[in-house]
Every structure is written in C-alpha cells, then in structure tokens.
TrEMBL record:
Record bears the keyword Oxidoreductase: yes
GO MF: oxidoreductase activity
Keywords for this protein: NADP, Oxidoreductase
SUPFAM superfamilies xrefs: NAD(P)-binding Rossmann-fold domains
The keyword Cell cycle is assigned to this record: no
Family: Belongs to the short-chain dehydrogenases/reductases (SDR) family.
Matching InterPro entries: NAD(P)-bd_dom_sf, SDR_fam
Organism: Rotaria sordida
Domain of life: Eukaryota
Name listed for the protein in its UniProt record: Uncharacterized protein
Length: 124
C-alpha cells in the first residue's frame, strides 16, 4: 500500500448491506479515488466480496473482516489497519448492528444486541 499520509482512511462497519453499504456507495461516488481509502467492514468475507462486486470493485475500497461483538476480531482488524495503513484511521462510521432482536424476554439475545449496538462501538 502506498503512503496514506495524504489520504483519509475511512472505516464503515456493517458495510456489506443496508445503511452501511449505502454509505460506502455514497463515499465511493463523491470522493476522488486517490483522496480516500474506504474500508468495508463486515463479519462475513463472502458477503463483503459480494458487496464489492455490487459496488463495481473500486480500487480504493478494501474489505476488512470485523465482527464488533468479538474482541478478538477487533484486535485482528486493528492489527491489519496498523500493518496496511500505518495505524491511520481518520473516520469511523459505526453502523454495525445485529438484527436478531425479537420482542421476547430472552435476556441473552437482548444482551448481545446491546453489546453490539452500544458497548462494542466503544471498544472499536
């Protein structure tokens, strides 16, 4: 990877579908390729690759496997950002969430929802 000192590194979590995907699409359209490096953060690399194809595989968008409910995954993603981009991360758009919440009293499921949607954002 070339020097990123002139470029902004932007991470969008939960970026393989929904709002995160649309944010990446808008960033890709509105920013010159050599000004921004966009990290498409996703839990599932296959779904991330599919999202890249739907975006037209721009040369400034890169996959970053990241499950914000897993501290190990956050640590691996952090190491990758340090290695590939010199630790530079200018903008983080925390979009990741889980859609598994149902209207039940199952506290484990609710706890996971809150951990991903609120608490793990801080750890990222």
């Amino acid at each position: 990877m070339s020097s990123t000192s002139q470029q902004r590194v932007i991470l969008v979590t939960g970026a393989n579908k929904g709002i995160g995907f649309e944010v990446v699409k808008k960033l890709a359209k509105e920013s010159p390729i050599n000004n921004n490096i966009i990290l498409l953060g996703c839990r599932d690399l296959k779904r991330g690759q599919d999202a890249l194809v739907r975006l037209g595989s721009p040369s400034n968008i890169y996959l970053l496997q990241l499950d914000i409910s897993s501290r190990d995954s956050i640590a691996r993603a952090t190491d990758e950002i340090k290695c590939k981009y010199g630790g530079q991360l200018n903008i983080v758009i925390n979009n990741a969430a889980t859609g598994e919440l149902e209207l039940t009293v199952e506290s484990a499921r609710e706890d996971k929802y809150l951990m991903v949607s609120l608490v793990e954002q801080v750890h990222l």
